[in-house]
Amino acid sequence: MKLSAVTNKQWFIFLIFNFSLLIISCSPNNVKIEDGFKKYFDEKSVTGTFGLFDNGTGQFTIYNLSRFKDSSYLPASTFKIINSLIGIETGRIVNEKMVIKWDGVVRTFPNGDTAVDWNKDLSMEEAFRVSAFPYYQEVARRIGKDTMKFWLDSLKYGNHTIGSDVDKFWIDNSLKITPDEELGVVKRLYFGQLPFQKRTQDIVKKVMLRESNANYKLSYKTGLGFRENGNELGWIVGWIEENNHPYFFVLNVEGDHNAKLMTARLEILKSILKQQGFFEGKR
After folding, report:
1. Over 60: is that where the pLDDT of 177 sits?
2. Closest among 146, 78, 154, 93 to 124, alpha carbons compared
3. Is 77 among the residues known to form the active site?
4. What is the pLDDT of residues 244-271, one digit of tens each?
5. Could you tell me which of 128, 106, 103, 127 has the C-alpha nearest to residue 116?
6. Biggest alpha carbon distance in the chain?
7. 177 three-state secondary structure
8. Superfamily holding 3-275
9. Which pLDDT score is estimated for 29?
10. For the chain, which residues make up each domain, given as ranges?
11. How far apart, in whole angstroms, are the C-alpha atoms of residue 86 and residue 147?
12. Which runs of E-coded beta strand occur in the chain?
């Protein structure tokens, strides 16, 4: 989509969206500081922050408030939420079943393991689930730098900085976002309040669903990358629903280069949610 193709209706949506952000930022928040979550980070020898928002009461429960609202980090693969939304909205991704052929290059993870889940043809929903970097690099190249920047500016996503490379700016520390902003993105996505068509947002919400049973539904996207200082950084952002009631969360964790955050982040998240009384359908 070229910038000249943006309709008056879209511009109206963007104006309403940005006005709504102003209203949200000026609203008083009920914040409970929960230092008891620290033990879960200490068990994994990592630092970080966690935020949980109860949409029904407007209550925030936060560990490490300063990191939550004042510090910005590369979004890593949590940006696949935005990349998917822009890709679908612009037609670069037809739907979640759209396959991009493997280019034949065998990728490996930083620890040397072969990325077997990446090294094959993948649909969008498969690529999202296994967080396939090559798939979304190709999506970003098809979107193009100008169109990508237009949407980042419209969303006011983090520092909305792309840098020199349109196919890796979300992992090379060009683009940065606060945990507070990450939580705001998934909250607005859940309620269909982002400046995208309903179909676009519904598709992304569908591929974010990871666990579903009689007690709860857990939807999220993970992220993993490295900061400029070499530290490993991990994310999980999303929501948990019990009795048709959504609670939005963001987990941000950081450790040394070998912190093994790929497994630690989900264990920390589930420990915190369990402490808060989730997973039993009683919330």
Report:
1. yes
2. 93
3. yes
4. 999 999 999 999 988 889 999 999 999 9
5. 106
6. 52
7. strand
8. DD-peptidase/beta-lactamase superfamily (3.40.710.10)
9. 58
10. 3-275
11. 9
12. 30-33, 47-54, 59-63, 99-100, 122-123, 209-212, 217-226, 232-242, 245-255
* Residues 118-154: tens digit of each pLDDT: 999 999 999 999 999 999 999 999 999 999 999 999 9
Q: In angstroms, rounded to a whole number, what is the distance separating the alpha carbons of residues 63 and 52?
A: 9
Nearest to 34, CA basis, from 272, 280, 238: 272
Among candidate residues 77, 131, 154, 219, the one labeled active-site is: 77
| Total-model pTM | 0.90
48-58 burial, b at 16+ Cβ within 10 Å, e below that, comes to bbbbbbbeeee
| Pairing of the two strands 30-33 and 59-63 | parallel
Quick one: which H or E segment has residue 17?
helix 8-26
> Is a pLDDT exceeding 60 seen at residue 2?
no
Q: Name the percent of the chain lying above pLDDT 70.
A: 90
